[in-house]
What does this fold into?
Amino acid sequence: MSLRVKSLLVVVLTTAILLVTSLVLTRLILTDSFTRLEQTDTTAHVERAINALTDDLAALARTANDYAAWDDTYNFMASRDTAYLDANYPDATFTNSRLNLVTLVDTMGQVVFAKAVDFDQAQEIPVSPEMLDVVVRHPALLRPAQSLSSTVGVLMLSTGPLLVAVQPILPGDEAGPTRGALLMGRALTTDEINRLGEVTRLTLAVHLPGDVLPPEAQAAAAALSAQQPIVVRPVSEQLVQGYTWLNDITDQPALLLRVDRVREIYQQGQLTLSLLALVLVPGGLLIGGVLAWALQLMVVSRLGRLSREVQAIGVSGDLDRRVSPQGTDELGSLAAEMNRMLTSLDDTQRQLRQREREAITLLDSIPAFAFFKDAAGHYVVANQKFCEALHHTRAEVAGKTDYDFYPPDRAERYRADDVYVMEHGETREVSEETIGQGPNAIVLATKKVPLKDEHGQVIGLIGLAFDITERKRTAQELAVARDQALAALRFKSQLLANVSHDLRTPISAILGYAEMLQAGIYGSLPEQQLEPLARIITNSHQLGRLVSDLLDQSRLDAGKLELRFGPFAPIDLVESIKATASLGAREKHLELIGEVAADVPLEIIGDYERVHQIVLNLVDNAIRFTDDGSVTIRISRPNAAQSAAQHAVSYAIEVIDTGCGIAPDEQARVFEVFQQGSVQASGRYKGLGLGLSIVKQLVARMGGQINLVSQVGQGTTFTVVLPLSPEAKEPA
It folds into this structure.
């Protein structure tokens, strides 16, 4: 649908909506206004009818008062002279005053005089017994006979409603006491209602209590209340009715008064609405036509020209072309903005082409088979190396899928990998794959990475396939070399084990005979021979430990060193170490100190032999590298931080010396196999460099840690932290 048709439809719909809205709102407003006006007018006419009836009752009360407050009437009630009756209550009096009933009642409630006249027929009629009974029994009618008050209202009888006025009988000066009451009544007949209607120029009707009410009267009667004494009900397009209750002399609703009115106001409102519609519809159509013409001239035609020019630029693809100016208004600004946008697009397109060339160059420089795929598995772009492997140009690869280049089973496998990467949004490394056969076969390892847009949605993937043929060949060669090294290591371990075993026998014999000579078993030795003999024993022990270290290292390398856990007393461990190392300490005049903290259990679980080996090795090192001062062995419970680091309750063994210390750059190497500190150069210690390495490996096998703190010239502290078995006995 063209813009011209759309704009015409918009104008037509807008005009129609405005017309309909205007007519509906006008109808609602005017109808509501005329309805309220009709309600007010009808209510006023109902009030006029009530006022007319009230005036009729007031006139009746004045007539009754004229006769009741009169000396002749007052005297008659005492004398009962009939001449008064004949003179004052002939039929003409009833006809002239439009009375249907006159009664005189004394203060005892006895009827003194009663007369009824049909003034329409101008003749006397009998007074009904019901009327006489009501006169002498009704409190409202008796009250004036016994007091100075009066009663005016409607009296409901079986024969119909009666307008009554009851006045107390008083002398002319209206000074008491009263001698009874005078009642005058007028029947509220249909003729009387019509007379009131003629006086008020209203159409009146009265519904009696026993009448069958029409539906609209029933609804009005139900709606009447003290808060709403008058109800107005439209009956038809031509008639509206107003309703109200007329109360009796006891102030209770007795008669339903209805006022009928022709709906002149409503009809005038309908005529006004019709005339207004005749004015609004042509005016709206005229305005709509003018609006459509102006919209076509000032907007649609100019937009059409602008659209055709933009379409021509799009078809030609020539971003150097520009649209023609459209004036200085918003459409002119739009044309200028389009020209600026075309300029920006031209610049952006040049930049994109440059970026594309740079991206292709970068892609071609990657030493791998690289490609981009979209979510459907189509190749977007691939580097030259990948295209050459497929024997296709880059343009031929773009838009194709794996099914166009590979056998179905391989293409299915590649597609499954692509779907996994894009569905899970995670990088996947495809297993190695051999392409080709014989000496020309290559091994590829492919990595596929999900490609996401700025909203994090996966729109494709990037694939990189690396030629790992040489790396694979190198790995195979390394595996062969590793197997050979492992075989050599096993041979070395076996050799060390055999050598250690073979060396233990002669060392044990030398040590045994030397100790027997020292003990004097073969006789006393001269003093000058004892010192060389002691050196033989010391060096034999040292040589034995070296052999043990070689054997332990071979077992550790082979994974055959077993731990034997059992309970032992920490104090026994300290004393045993002190006894073994005391000779070396005495020779250097060092103080050998042993301490066990009070919070250490009396027994702990561990491999006593290996713990003894660890501590003795550390103590021997401390004695060898300490010239003055002391060597301290301390067993304690580490602080909370150390325990937390071990994730268990632990105990710590510290070996502290006051020796020469270890330089910072050498501390990291002292635990390595066959490594020794710089003191080796001084000739102070000859060894294999296995002791601390074995210590660290044994501590690790026991699930512990060993730490080193040292400063050159101030001494060294080795701390071994081992887990404390839960079966350990706590101190008492």
Remarks:
- The first helix runs from residue 3 to 68.
- Residues 387 and 394 are 6 Å apart (CA to CA).
- Confidence is low (pLDDT under 50) at residues 640-647, 679-686.
- The chain has 20 helices and 22 strands.
